[in-house]
Write a structure and sequence with these properties.
The chain is of the alpha+beta class. It has one domain (about 5-60). Helix content is about 40%, strand content about 25%. The chain has helices at about 5-20, 35-45, and strands at about 25-30, 45-55, 55-60. A 3-stranded antiparallel sheet has the order 1-3-2, with helices on one face. β2 and β3 (about 55-60) form a beta hairpin. The radius of gyration is 12 Å and the shape is flat.
Length: about 60
């Protein structure tokens, strides 16, 4: 089911729900060698930070 937008839709819904529940920041750890995950993070409004943990970049809203 790759390339059908399911990850984007699900992630966007989760970010919306968390925001409505009062979350002021959402954090994701994304491996830089996985372009689809990077694209999902970007499209839902996250930005990469300089923090890297176990090879994964921390992204925040």
């Amino acid at each position: 089911h790759q390339g059908r937008g399911y990850a984007r839709q699900g992630s966007a819904a989760m970010v919306k729900w968390l925001g409505e529940a009062g979350a002021d920041r959402i954090i994701a750890h994304v491996h830089p060698d996985h372009p689809a995950s990077v694209a999902v993070a970007r499209v839902i409004g996250m930005r990469a930070t300089e923090t890297v943990i176990d090879g994964e970049v921390r992204w925040v809203t």
